[in-house]
């Protein structure tokens, strides 16, 4: 406010916040995405097919940064369930809601996983790319299913968590 700028300690504190909060929310988002995909194996298979087709003709099967735009279905489910925006089936898991043609039709403030305006997350693009690569790398090698006897209870907060964790089974794909 007085024009003097931030001290070295203040800068360090800001950077620490970005790094640690970014990892926390990314880890939570990846966990929930894998949970949702395990709960909806038809969506998981669609994403795995997309990954397989992308990498089919390559000797190096690693997913690269430039591959991200070629994985349109590999997006993260949201906490947003407003029936005005999402329709009567607002509580259903539908990754197709985030297909480019559907995103274009939606008000830009209808889905705010990273907030909006001058206080939005400056790391949102990095976080989305990071999550997409992590999930794609996991689904490239494994199929995820839920532990049938474990009930997942959401614990809503700034970062959505679970009461007793998410228990998944991971099996190597053939």
Short summary:
This protein is mainly α and 174 residues long.
Helix content range of the residues, please? 40-55%
In terms of DSSP E residues, the strand content is 5-15%
Strand order of the largest sheet: 1-4
Radius of gyration: 18 Å
- Counting DSSP E segments of at least 2 residues, the number of strands comes to 4
Q: How would you sum up the major sheet?
A: 2 strands, antiparallel
Report the span from N to C terminus: 60 Å
Assign an overall shape: globular
Low-confidence stretches: 75-79
So how many helices?
A: 5
Mean pLDDT across the residues is 83
**Class by SSE composition:** mainly alpha
Highlighted features:
174 residues, two-stranded antiparallel ribbon, 8% strand, monooxygenase activity, iron ion binding, heme binding
Structure write-up:
InterPro entries: Cyt_P450, Cyt_P450_CS, Cyt_P450_E_grp-I, Cyt_P450_sf, Cytochrome_P450_Monoox. GO terms for molecular function: heme binding; iron ion binding; monooxygenase activity; oxidoreductase activity, acting on paired donors, with incorporation or reduction of molecular oxygen. Its cofactor is heme. The chain is mainly alpha-helical and 174 residues long. 43% of the residues lie in helices and 8% in strands. The chain contains five helices and four strands, in the order H-H-H-H-H-E-E-E-E. It has helices at 8-39, 41-55, 83-86, 100-105, 124-141, and strands at residues 142-146, 154-155, 161-162, 168-172. The strands form two sheets. Strands 1-4 form a two-stranded antiparallel sheet. Strands 2-3 form a two-stranded antiparallel ribbon. A hairpin with a 5-residue loop joins strand 2 and strand 3. Helix 1 (8-39) runs parallel beside helix 5 (124-141). The chain is globular and about 60 Å long. The N and C termini lie far apart (60 Å). 11% of the residues are buried. Residues 75-79 have low confidence and may be disordered.
């Amino acid at each position: 406010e007085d024009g003097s700028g931030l001290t070295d300690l203040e800068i360090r504190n800001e950077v620490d916040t970005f790094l640690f909060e970014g990892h926390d929310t990314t880890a939570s988002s990846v966990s929930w995405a894998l949970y949702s995909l395990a709960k909806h194996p038809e969506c998981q298979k669609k994403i795995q097919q997309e990954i397989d087709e992308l990498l089919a003709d390559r000797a190096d099967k690693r997913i690269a940064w430039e591959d991200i735009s070629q994985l349109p279905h590999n997006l993260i489910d949201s906490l947003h369930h407003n029936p005005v925006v999402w329709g009567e089936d607002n509580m259903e898991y539908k990754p197709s809601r985030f297909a480019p043609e559907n995103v274009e039709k939606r008000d830009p403030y209808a889905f705010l996983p990273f907030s909006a305006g001058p206080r939005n997350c400056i790391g949102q693009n990095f976080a989305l790319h990071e999550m997409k690569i992590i999930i794609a790398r996991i689904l490239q090698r494994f199929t995820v299913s839920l532990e049938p006897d474990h009930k997942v209870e959401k614990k809503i907060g700034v970062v959505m968590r679970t009461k007793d964790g998410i228990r998944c089974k991971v099996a190597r794909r053939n």
